[in-house]
Amino acid sequence: MKKIIKRYRGFLFVLVAMILLILFNQELGLKTLRITGNSVKEMLLVIPPIFLLLGLLDVWVPRETMIKYMGEGSGIKGVLLAIFIGSAAAGPLYGAFPVAAVFMKKGVKFMNILIFIGAWSTTKIPMFLFEIAALGNTFAITRLLIDIPGIIIIAFILSKMVSKKEVQALYENAASID
């Protein structure tokens, strides 16, 4: 029982806080409950398709192929592939992390994983098309031309700042997830 309480202490704390909020300010508490419900509903609509695609990626794409195209020796081809996959992805940023974990299991270079996460968060193709329509070609293209090198530079710096021991621990943790 203690193990369960310890594992879910964050959830239990928030649950108690919401109950107290409803008791002391019913209007605000119910509004908070509605927002929480909408967030949970959104997650339940996004996460199953991502996990389905991850399962297919895990089964259909051999580790050797991922290492060849996005692993340590992949060079610019790995960087471009990470940008393309991240830009073509759909869904909120929290969907990128399970994909990154599968990439780690498949032997993708740490810097390429960071580039993938950066591309997922800033260079999505639908967002780019919306920006062209709403804000104009100049803004959209300028932002993209600044973001892509920025993502690569940040990923490079982070990959150099994080120790090999920490990176190894991340890869081992990802490999243990089934």
UniProtKB/TrEMBL annotation:
Main location: membrane
KW Cell membrane (keyword) present: yes
GO annotation, cellular component aspect: plasma membrane
InterPro entries per record: DUF318
Keywords: Cell membrane, Membrane, Transmembrane, Transmembrane helix
Pfam families the record matches: ArsP_1
Record localization: Cell membrane
Transmembrane segment boundaries: 7-24, 44-61, 81-104, 110-132, 144-162
Topological category with respect to the lipid bilayer: Multi-pass membrane protein
Family: Belongs to the UPF0718 family.
Protein's name according to its UniProt entry: Permease
Source species of the chain: Lachnotalea glycerini
